[in-house]
Design brief:
The chain has helices at about 5-15, 105-120, 150; strands at about 20-25, 40-50, 60-75, 75-85, 100. It is of the alpha+beta class. It starts with a helix and ends in a 20-residue tail after the last helix.
């Protein structure tokens, strides 16, 4: 889905936040995982998505697509910056990193969980866990760290004994 769709879904979900506060979503491919700027809070999550190589047209699914959110509330103005981590084609030499095509259902789940995380981290609310897991895609091959931007940066936690999404580390 396009960035405008993410923004629309976020705005709709953000209406559950404190009345009178305004929140906006920005895409920022320079966010550094596990290093938010002072005053910013972080939320890291993985989801399912598809990728398509620009060079050869090959398409592949992945349930290991990392998404990083940095959020800040100053006064009544909130900002969420988001970075979706990319993957590249294992068949093409020097393949460019491709942006994920995240399913609309998974964007909705990400935004629900993000709003809950904002309520906890920015408003100090005490909420139960209750984070929704992503919808998994059918994946017939193992995750390939050499082609994963998040793995290359050391944030794509994976259990080497299994490719079961229920064993993956989630950052809350």
């Amino acid at each position: 889905m396009a960035q405008a769709d993410w923004t629309y879904i976020f705005r709709d979900k953000a209406t559950d936040l404190r009345q009178g506060d305004s929140w906006r979503l920005e895409f920022d491919d320079t966010l550094v995982p596990e290093s938010p700027n002072p005053g910013w809070k972080e939320y890291i999550r993985n989801t399912g998505a598809r990728f398509r190589c620009r060079k050869c047209g090959r398409s592949w699914p992945s349930n290991r697509v990392m998404v990083v959110f940095h959020m800040r509330l100053i006064g009544r103005e909130g900002v969420v910056k988001v970075r979706r981590f990319r993957q590249n084609c294992k068949n093409c030499p020097s393949a460019p990193m491709e942006n994920p095509e995240i399913l609309p259902e998974n964007i909705d789940i990400l935004m629900d969980n993000l709003v809950k995380k904002i309520r906890i981290k920015c408003y100090g609310e005490r909420l139960d866990g209750g984070f929704r897991p992503p919808q998994n895609l059918e994946v017939n091959s193992p995750h390939e760290p050499a082609h994963c931007e998040a793995c290359q940066l050391g944030i794509c936690e994976r259990n080497t004994a299994t490719n079961n999404p229920s064993t993956f580390k989630y950052f809350f």
